[in-house]
Amino acid sequence: MRLSSIMTGSVQSVAPGATLAEAARKMASQDIGSLPVCSGRSAVGIITDRDITVRAVARGLDPNRTSVQDVMTREVLSCRADSDVEEACRLMERNHVRRIVVTDGNDAPIGVVSLGDIALRLRSEGP
């Protein structure tokens, strides 16, 4: 099974200079827990709801004044849309992450796949 069949497409992103409050509002409006951080069409990081709470709010940083680039994860883990789901699972397991960015042939972000997406797909396929 290919990632393209289970990923959440139409990926939203955020700029590195956006505030954490802006990123959180975008996550809330889309009911998602992470956003690729993009400069142009390239992902330069990823910001999660956990990054905002643990790396910023818990440390007393002001989400209205702190930029995404100050707390984002700079290493972007990704797989191409035509990659096998097993490859994504191995990448997540090896790096202890719950989500990865799905890219097109030019390495531009086009979606996100999460452990939840994988679990739902496996559940729907049944034993």
Molecular structure report:
With 127 residues, this protein is α+β, with helices and mostly antiparallel strands. It has a single domain, classed as CBS-domain, CATH 3.10.580.10. The chain is 35% helix and 23% strand. Strand 5 (99-103) and strand 6 form a beta hairpin. The two termini are 15 Å apart.
Task: Give the helices and strands, then pairings.
Elements: E1 8-9, H1 20-30, E2 34-39, E3 42-48, H2 49-56, H3 68-71, E4 78-80, H4 85-95, E5 99-103, E6 109-114, H5 115-125
Parallel strand pairs: 4-5
Antiparallel strand pairs: 1-6, 2-3, 5-6
How many alpha or pi helices?
A: 5
Task: Summarize model confidence as the mean pLDDT.
Answer: 91
Tell me the CATH architecture: Roll
Q: Helicity range of the residues?
A: 25-40%
CATH class: Alpha Beta
What's the main sheet like? 4 strands, mixed
CATH homologous superfamily grouping: CBS-domain
Strand line-up across the major sheet: 1-6-5-4
What structural class results from the helix and strand content?
alpha+beta
Domain count: 1
Q: Distance between termini? A: 15 Å
Strand content: 15-25%
Shape: globular
SSE succession: EHEEHHEHEEH
Unreliable residue runs:
none
Radius of gyration: 15 Å
**Might you state the CATH topology name?**
CBS-domain
Total strand count, please? Answer: 6
Brief digest:
The protein has helices spanning 20-30, 49-56, 68-71, 85-95, 115-125; strands at 8-9, 34-39, 42-48, 78-80, 99-103, 109-114.
